Amino acid sequence: MAAEALLESWNDTPARTGIIDFVGGVSDEGSSDFVLPADRVAVFDNDGTLWSEKPIPIQLDFTLFRMAELAEADKSLRDRQPYQAAAGRDYHWLGEAMVKHYHGDDGDLRLLLGAVESAFQGMSVESFQAEVLGWLQNASHPVLHRPYRSCGFVPMVELLRYLEANDFSTYIASGGDRDFMRPFAYDIYGIPPERVIGSALGLDFDDGDDDTRLVYKSKIEFFDDGPQKPVRVWSRIGRRPLVAGGNSNGDIPMLRFARTGERGALRLLVLHDDADREFAYTAGAEDALERARSHGWTVVSVRDDWRTVFADS
Amino acid sequence: MAAEALLESWNDTPARTGIIDFVGGVSDEGSSDFVLPADRVAVFDNDGTLWSEKPIPIQLDFTLFRMAELAEADKSLRDRQPYQAAAGRDYHWLGEAMVKHYHGDDGDLRLLLGAVESAFQGMSVESFQAEVLGWLQNASHPVLHRPYRSCGFVPMVELLRYLEANDFSTYIASGGDRDFMRPFAYDIYGIPPERVIGSALGLDFDDGDDDTRLVYKSKIEFFDDGPQKPVRVWSRIGRRPLVAGGNSNGDIPMLRFARTGERGALRLLVLHDDADREFAYTAGAEDALERARSHGWTVVSVRDDWRTVFADS
Lengths: 313, 313
Description:
The structure is a homodimer.
Chain A: H1 14-27, E1 41-44, H2 58-73, H3 83-88, H4 91-102, H5 107-119, H6 125-138, H7 154-165, E2 169-177, H8 178-189, E3 196-207, E4 212-222, H9 228-237, E5 243-246, H10 252-258, E6 266-273, E7 280-281, H11 286-295, E8 298-301, H12 302-305
Parallel strand pairs in A: 1-2, 1-5, 2-3, 5-6, 6-8
Antiparallel strand pairs in A: 3-4, 6-7
Helix pairs in contact in A: 4-5, 6-8, 9-10
């Protein structure tokens, strides 16, 4: 049970105890729960699990920024969604698109994804990285009034370090875009690019005479949510996770995938119940919460389990 | 220039010196060639680069084993290619399918891939692992007369360790199937599953009431060769490689991708010119050899640069 002092922003509640007990068991060679270090894999959703996702996922705000630029350059786009919402910063329309998705209605999400798909067509992976970092340097949260780069949940970052101190390999496995997260995932979470899993735009190899480039297509390769999450986790890691954390219905398959008939798993579900310090909502998480109750997943209450939510910015 | 003693199966030739000089430069903080450890990524093709690929890629022999089983169970398959070749162990037909592919004719390869696609339909990833390991335990090379699991090139395994000793992260990036290589890549090469990149069959998430499973579709997701190689390297790692090794035309894009306008790269091309100890052929590697000559890639001659090819089995 090494390094539990790392979990200093967690209150001394059953959630924290459950984490420490689980990690202690799989790390104890004398325990029947022992798991070899190589198989100690932990995967975490990003939006709503490692950082705030309300009123809209942060990546959407970046994409709005880009779409507003595109609408500025091409006036014919201004009366069409999602460019209209982008130009007017209509967070409600955009937030609802995600909630509708989690409820099975993908119409607005498809409009959004279509615009996301074409927003970066022909851009190289390196230029995209620079765009993300340039935007993130100045962008701030419209409700929390702190820089987006300070919107990571401190207790979750501590949990990543705690797991690593117990020989876990930690990964992000998010519905968000893989290459959007990669440029800042190390600074915010300590997670390097090779351990960031997410949705992906298709890529073309542009073999110019001199330098080669990888450039984005105007086509998503896969949307890493729901049943795609375990597929993408396997594709990247080649092992089942032993710890899986999420916060919404889209994380259910990944959390279920962690357990096997031979061994248990730690499944964490972040419950957003703190309107004072963050947000309070369960829309899009109803099935996950129900499954947590019926299958003994560990619900992590922002209000009750976390002493601190955000770092001082 | 740490750990060069690890390269003990390499003769003292310009190839070895070139490797040591390059690694020494990128590892030397005082050098203008210095590269941060996190960006020291090395990727290697597998078939023909890390182990023998003649008379047919070893994975094909595994697939033949499986296809012969299927043909045994379903007699209508026996007169059709590639089942006919599989049942008769017709290595010539199969080897030529790959050579034709490298020359731009994908007809026979498509037949093969179609059969590969359907050979494991509905099988779980864990069952597939067990199949691979069970087969590999007894399968041996038809020409080299040694167990397949002893067909790795000792100097290349030493090179992997040498690079790791100099803070490189090493990856396999092969046209072969990712999940075929994963079960044995650690034992043969010291490469864990999360650092094995390759072609992939599509996967479905089977969320049965109790245990969940990932099962293979009868459909390839992507064939990791040619321009797909840099795409897959980026998808998995999120960085350009600094060292890239291959042996055929299909590796050219990956080797080209390693260099940028800002920094050099070490590109290694294994030349099979040792009919006594391994094989001698250049079919399917002509363009790569030409590019090596014109662009200063390091050609590694099996005959001249390697003191030992295989470990005692």
